[in-house]
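quick one, 134 residues, struct below
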Amino acid sequence: MTDINKFLTDLQKTLKHDRQNNGGKSDYNRVKNDIQRLFERNASAVGELADSVYEYWEKEYIFPSADLAWEPSEENQQRLTAYLAFLENSDEYQELISDADWEEFGRLVNFEAEELDVDVLQDLMKILVSKGAY
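---
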């Protein structure tokens, strides 16, 4: 299992290094590939589902932002960490996951179900059922 807080720390380090290397200015477009790789590496047990969850996070919480220079905000960093926790069968940060997020996760898990390890799928489904995603 991934250390969820280590992921958040690594994410924050990535953002800090980008600002340091660019005159103190952030830009999501510069760091998005690094963040996505970090997320996928930490959620490797779920394969392509990690990509789908990351893309959902971007579409719902990052791209609608008025200024991508400030993304991911602290709240969105924690939200992505919560998403990783879900994928890793951990309950950390789950209060940051909305009902709409749970419903989307249910849809994404159903779509990727054939590709998931049976034990991983059972764990995810158990969480989704408990959160009312189905």
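The CA atoms of residues 43 and 84 lie 6 Å apart.
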